Amino acid sequence: MCKGWWFVREADIGTRRKRVDALYCSPCCRTRAWREGVRVQEPSLRDAFPQRYKTLLVQSIAAPFGKMLSMELLPIPCPAELIPDVTEPAALNAACSAAREQGAVFVGIEREGYRWIVKADELTAPEHGVDTAIYGAVRIAVIHLIHSREIRPDSTAGPIYFALYGVDNEYRARELAAALHAALYGDLGPLSDAVPDTSA
C-alpha cells in the first residue's frame, strides 16, 4: 500500500469527521484519488459506485464537450507518436485506467505553461518487475538531462514514479517518454539514442 501521502486538515462531512486536502505520491496511485496541488473532493461517488466510478467520472467530465472520452490500449512499449497527452484531468484518468486494465506501466506527457512534463508510473502494473540495472541506467540518464539543463533539478528518477519536469517542447517530451517506457520494459536502446553519452 502507498505510504507517500499525508493530510493537512480535517473537515466535518456528514456525521463523521474526515481528513481532506491530501497530497499524494503519484497520479496513478491505487490507494487514493491523486490530485497534484488541488484540493481533493470527498470521494462519495467513488464509494457509492465502486464498479462504475471510472465510467461515471469520465462521462461527467466529458459531457460538457458532447462526447465520451475513452482510450484504447497502447502498445508495449509505447512509441513516441502514441504517447498520450494527459494535460486534461479527463485524459489523465482515462490513460491511468487504460494502463491499469492492461497491467501496463503508465506513461504520458503533460503541458505545463510553455514546457512539458514526462510521466511514468509503475503502480498501474503491479506484476511488472524492473531490474535494478535498468533503474540505474534511467537514473544516469535523468542526471545527465539535469546537468545539461534539459529538465529541472526536481525531476524524479523513480523507482515506481518518474517525472521529468521542464522539457522544452512536445516532440522532445514524446521522445523521452517513449525512451523511458521502453527502458522500463528492458530496452535501453531508445534511451541511449535519446540521451547520448549515458550508460548503466
Task: Describe the structure using short key phrases.
disordered N terminus, four-stranded antiparallel beta sheet, 200 residues, 33% helix, two-stranded antiparallel ribbon, alpha+beta
Summarize the structure.
By secondary structure, the chain is α+β, with helices and mostly antiparallel strands.
Molecular structure report:
The structure is a single chain. This protein has six helices and six strands, in the order ββαααββαββαα. It has a domain of 115 residues. Strand 3 and strand 4 form a beta hairpin. Helix 2 runs antiparallel to helix 3. It is an alpha+beta fold and 200 residues long. A four-stranded antiparallel beta sheet has the order 3-4-6-5. The protein has a two-stranded antiparallel sheet with strand order 1-2. The protein is globular. It starts with 5 loop residues before the first strand and ends in a 6-residue tail after the last helix. 33% of the residues lie in helices and 20% in strands.
Number of strands: 6
Largest sheet features: 4 strands, antiparallel
- The amount of helix comes to 25-40%
| SSE order, one letter for each helix or strand | EEHHHEEHEEHH
Strand neighbour order, sheet with most strands: 3-4-6-5
Secondary-structure map:
Elements lengths: L5 E8 L2 E8 L20 H5 L4 H10 L26 H14 L3 E7 L2 E7 L10 H16 L8 E2 L3 E7 L2 H15 L4 H6 L6
